[in-house]
Protein: Phenylalanine--tRNA ligase alpha subunit
Organism: Ureibacillus xyleni
Amino acid sequence: MEQQLKQLEQEALAKIEAASNLKELNDVRVAYLGKKGPITDLLKGMGKLSPEERPKMGALVNTVRENVTNQLEARITILEEQAIQEQLEKESIDVTLPGRKIRTGNRHPLTRVIEEIEDLFLSMGYEIAEGPEVEKDYYNFEALNLPKGHPARDMQDTFYITEETLLRTHTSPVQARTMEAKKGEPIRIICPGKVFRRDNDDATHSHQFMQIEGLVIGENIRMSDLKGTLDALAKRMFGEEREIRLRPSFFPFTEPSVEVDVSCHKCGGTGCNVCKQTGWIEILGAGMVHPNVLEMAGYDSKKLSGFAFGIGAERIAMLKYGVDDIRHFYTNDIRFLSQFHRTEE
Ligand SMILES: [Zn+2]
């Protein structure tokens, strides 16, 4: 019987070693250790042995059973690891394949122009102020020296919601609101935002566009401060060699008022189609804040003075990027927008 056991053990171990997958191993387990297996049979036959032999044989059967079980488990572990390894190899990724290109977006040209102007003025100590696009007649016109019936209102016809509520025609109401809130304190702000006019859309006009206005109020603020500020702006937007010139103009909220031209960035001043052969391009309107506007907001126009200017973001972007139709900015045509690639920044 001892001989028989040893032989069974050898057989079982050899089969375990030879098994190449988990199913074969399971078959070996059932065949040798199962209820109908030979080892169980031997245990059942123990009753026929003499009482002296029984403990010895019992111990031997247990040892064999343990050996076979341990071998079996060790082999299962190995085969399982192999299976995982094979799966990993089969599913491995070929890192040498070229990747799929992700299409990155870029900032809208108007956003870029506005952010560039904001950066410049923030670096000069200005704050950015914003206000409502649906505005009261009072802040859009009256507080800016444009009482009801003033002829200059005709130049800024807009969309009315009620008699007293309208879509703002410029960002100047933000200036009026800021002056009111500051109660006589000095101010240095720029106000970027959407504005609206009752205009028919064409290549250079839009019923909605972006404006950036600036306002400085303090002691001893003079025309020369305005000129220096606008000179810095022109150089930042169109290059260090640019110069500006001021021409007299009229706005109800400034006195004196000026139109500001910048020397042509394309021809350098000799004359070309961009500057209509004049060497100069009109870029913005500006002036010294009208005493009436200061007084209406509670400022003492004898003690404090200020300047203001207003820029059209579209106008700057059209000149800077050579865009020939203002409507391109709003139609969201990807062929247009993708030309302003982020690497240019
Ligand atoms: Zn030119």
